[in-house]
Design goal:
The protein is an all-alpha fold. Helix 7 runs parallel beside helix 10 (about 235-270), helix 9 (about 220-230) packs antiparallel against helix 10 (about 235-270) and helix 14 (about 350-365) packs across helix 15 (about 425-430). The protein is globular. It contains 24 helices and three strands.
């Protein structure tokens, strides 16, 4: 039945509710508001359940409670339980909430939660393909790093929790050793050359007092420093430090010795092939990883070609720098010059860190001209700790705690200054610090109106794409005044383009580690140690390195589109808000959001 306007009005007036159209609209708005509040409560509940099962997750958030002295359950049963909680939560959300009745912001949260759960479901069948111990993510270095960098000590109870975690390292390590042994027996272990790095890390942790007569070991030195800073009586401090010594000798040292024995056993039987194609489901596993990290459906061959195309483009831009500085010779000769000339390397760590500080202060002063939203959390720069610097990556970032108890931290690896060219210092600082990871991830953490999974989660293509975009943004902001520094910026972008080539080369085209090293040697200006370390990272971290360039290309594409369509109305600050204020999203969602922002007039 179709009612004419007058008849419709009479119908509404005569309805049992007796509500006018305005009242009905008001009632609908109230219902929508209730739905949005209920959805927020649902996300908070999911987050609380996840935190209840993750003592380490609580510590990253700055939460100190009865779990502060515990480690996460490392068992497959715990991983399965976490996965099932996520899938159950997805079902519950779909049952309880109708996206069409939610606000635009909550509709996006609904969609992102669904995406996150579906991504977990795609990854779950391959969970046993991951390496338990390697030079990038192994517990042999990650557990000590957690205690040093995340477990803060503000009270006697915090110090007791630190000791409890030391005591818990033995059982935790044993569980991981057992899982690593099981996977190795099933043919899942890293290549043979990985093991010396793991063994070196493990031996470093149990070097020094109280394990031998040397200077205090890394963990004892950290505990002692933290306890000595407490405002408690000297006998209480001594008792805490003694308890730590006992935990180190009775729990940590025996477990690390068992780890060393197992790693030596595996080293003797480890494969020599580098790519994950050698796993029984390696091809499907790699396809899943590429989709997960890039948030696209690009194939390995397509990603490989995008890499080759961008390598050629960046080489062309580098030749312009060669002309600018008056270098006569081939591009490869220019690479050799930058790679070997002492003028491009620092003599001391202190000089390197001081220069980083100068560059970041200059950048910080200019940020308000390009950003409407800036982080509140401070940024600190630290050299990677000695016990893990030989195996750790070139540089990385750690987000701040939401309660302000821990700053954002840019870690730079200064193990070998000949691997850290001065030409790349600016771009690396902008990527890891400002306006890169620190700005993006601190702002994300501070978006208090977003549900926890969006404030504290991540999408690699978005996050790393932003980091790489920030390197080029520094050029737009007037930095890289030294042409060699601008060459370093191009070198960093070239590095990420080459990653597309070598990652797919290793894991899809069956390149050896040596082939991949040769490709970077021929096509980049990076020093040999830097090149070897990078390829070793890509071997044990398949797919992850492809996210950077794919993400950056999309952000640049969207900015170019906005500048063309908005013309004089384009604003860097408003564009950056359009990208940043939703937190990390898949690239398809990012494109939709920026398109909507453009359509709304910027």
């Amino acid at each position: 039945m179709t009612l004419r306007p007058i008849a419709l009005a009479l119908f509404l007036a005569a309805s049992p509710l007796g509500l006018s159209p305005a009242a009905l609209a008001q009632s609908a708005a109230a219902t929508a508001e209730a739905q949005n509040a209920e959805l927020k409560a649902f996300f908070d509940q999911v987050d609380a359940e996840n935190l209840a099962n993750s003592p380490q997750g609580k510590a990253y958030r700055g939460i100190r409670d009865g779990d502060y002295g515990k480690w996460n359950d490392p068992s497959d049963a715990a991983e399965t339980a976490a996965f099932e909680r996520g899938q159950k939560a997805l079902t519950t959300m779909k049952t309880r909430f109708d996206p069409s009745k939610l606000s635009p912001g909550d509709r996006l949260s609904y969609r992102l939660f669904e995406y996150q759960a579906e991504r977990a479901a795609r990854a779950y069948p391959y969970r046993n393909n991951e390496y338990i111990f390697d030079q990038m993510n192994g517990a042999q270095s990650q557990m000590p790093a957690f205690l040093i960098n995340i477990h803060s000590v503000k009270s006697k109870a915090d110090a007791e929790a630190y000791v409890a975690r030391l005591q818990g390292m033995g059982p935790q390590m044993d569980a991981l050793i057992a899982e690593a042994r099981s996977r190795a027996d099933a043919g899942v272990m890293p290549p043979q050359w990985v093991y010396p790095f793991v063994l070196d890390d493990a031996r470093n942790v149990i070097k020094g007092a109280p394990f031998d007569d040397g200077a205090p070991s890394t963990l004892l030195a950290d505990l002692t420093k933290k306890v000595e800073a407490l405002a408690i009586a000297a006998p209480e401090k001594a008792a805490l430090i003694d308890a730590g010594r006992q935990a180190l000798t009775t729990s940590v040292q025996p477990a690390y010795r068992r780890l060393i024995a197992e790693m030596e056993r595996q080293q003797a039987i480890a494969p020599t092939e580098d790519g994950i194609w050698r796993l029984k489901d390696g091809a499907a596993y790699y396809t899943q990883l590429l989709a997960n990290y890039t948030t696209t459906d690009l194939s390995a061959d397509q990603i490989h070609q995008i890499g080759l195309d961008n390598v050629a483009r960046i080489h062309g831009e580098m030749r312009k720098i060669m002309d600018k500085v008056g270098f006569k010779g081939s591009l490869q000769e220019f690479f050799a010059f930058v790679r070997t000339d002492d003028r491009f390397y620092f003599k001391t760590r202190e000089d390197y860190l001081a220069t980083v500080d100068t560059k970041l202060k200059a950048m910080q002063a200019k940020l308000p001209d390009y950003f409407a939203t800036l982080p509140k959390a401070p940024l600190t720069v630290k050299a990677v700790e000695a016990f893990r610097e030989k195996s750790a990556g070139k540089a990385f970032y750690q987000s701040p705690a939401p309660d302000g108890s821990r700053p954002g931290t840019y870690y730079v690896n200064l193990y070998n200054l000949k691997d850290m060219a001065s030409t790349e210092l600016e771009a690396l600082a902008y990527h890891e610090g400002l306006p890169g990871h620190h700005l993006q991830r601190a702002v994300q953490t501070e978006l208090g109106d977003l549900p926890p999974f969006r404030r504290f989660g991540g999408v690699t293509a978005y996050t790393e794409g932003w980091g790489l975009y920030s390197e080029e943004l520094g050029k737009d902001m007037g930095f890289y005044e030294d042409p060699y520094s601008d060459f370093g910026r191009l070198g960093m972008e070239l590095w990420r383009a080459c990653r597309l080539v070598v990652d797919t080369g290793i894991h899809h085209k069956r390149w050896s580690r040596e082939q991949a090293i040769q490709y970077l040697t021929d096509n980049t200006p990076n020093p040999p140690g830097d090149i070897s370390k990078a390829i070793e990272r890509y071997v044990v971290y398949p797919g992850q390195a492809t996210a950077y360039m794919i993400g950056k290309l999309k952000i640049m594409e969207l900015r170019d589109k906005a500048q063309k369509q908005l013309g004089a109305k384009f604003s860097y600050a408003r564009f950056h808000d359009a990208v940043l204020r939703s937190g990390p999203v898949p690239l398809t969602v990012l494109e939709e959001q920026v398109d909507a922002w453009i359509k709304a007039g910027g």
